[in-house]
UniProtKB/TrEMBL annotation:
Signal peptide (residue range): 1-24
Biased composition (Pro residues): 226-242
Protein name: Uncharacterized protein
Region (Disordered): 199-242
Alphabetical UniProt keywords: Signal
Species: Bradyrhizobium cosmicum
Length: 242
């Protein structure tokens, strides 16, 4: 009897280990697999209009049959370049059970073949994508008070840096001058922008920017710049009446 009990216990342990191992393997395969949106159900229709967030970003489209298609706002630029009202589209995604709602993984313009695929938001973690760009400065860019906060290269690339650093490195930021910059690059359908971390006359001669990166809109570059030049500040108060 003891032998049978021991054998049964050993069998249960082996069975549990096999199940756990199989589950771990399945979990590993799920995590490591690449998602293929073409395997999701397809819905076709004609775009009637975009849907917008309070900030004006596109977060989906409405089809002419009333179906609401949800897309993440970080795809706004790609969506408006590839898909327009009146276009016939193919959508891959999951449809809601009880309402005309689609959670889209991709949307394709049937006529042009242009597709927008949701691969998640861009990775904006600092220091991951530093690259070097270069070109001739076509124009300087300014904040609302006239302070320099970047430059536009002749190929359309935008360089952005905090106004205090732009003032400190003003010798590197002159219109018509050739410049090299290193930083985090974001390349979108609307253009390329570089969050500058170092700048100089060449990739071998660069000056690192000082201090932390500028914070968000509430305390952004426009609020940390130098005093506004004449003509850009608020009007002076009226003189006191005698």
């Amino acid at each position: 009897m003891k032998k049978m009990t021991r054998m049964r216990a050993l069998f249960c342990v082996l069975l549990a280990a096999t199940a756990i191992g199989g589950g771990a393997a399945a979990y590993s395969q799920t995590r490591d697999s690449m998602w293929d949106s073409s395997q999701l159900p397809e819905t076709r229709g004609t775009v009637r209009q975009y849907t917008l967030t309070p900030r004006g970003d596109v977060d989906g489209v409405i089809l002419t049959d009333g179906t609401e298609v949800k897309l993440p706002p970080h795809l706004t630029a790609q969506i408006v370049f590839a898909i327009r009202p009146g276009d016939n589209v193919s959508i891959r995604g999951l449809r809601a059970r009880a309402m005309p709602l689609l959670d889209a993984a991709s949307i394709t313009n049937i006529a042009t073949g242009k597709s927008v695929v949701d691969n998640g938001p861009p990775d904006r973690r600092a220091g991951n994508d530093d690259q070097v760009v270069g070109g001739r400065i076509a124009a300087l860019l300014h904040g609302k008070r006239g302070e320099v906060n970047g430059a536009l290269l002749d190929d359309g690339t935008t360089l952005r840096l905090p106004p205090p650093e732009a003032e400190r490195l003003q010798d590197q930021l002159r219109q018509g001058q050739t410049v090299s910059a290193r930083g985090d690059i974001l390349d979108t359908a609307l253009g390329k922008v570089v969050d500058v971390r170092a700048i100089g006359a060449s990739p071998e001669q660069m000056t690192e920017l000082r201090g932390p990166r500028p914070p968000g809109p509430k305390d952004g570059p426009d609020r940390r710049g130098p005093p506004p030049p004449p003509g850009f500040g608020p009007p002076p108060p009226p003189p006191p009446r005698g």
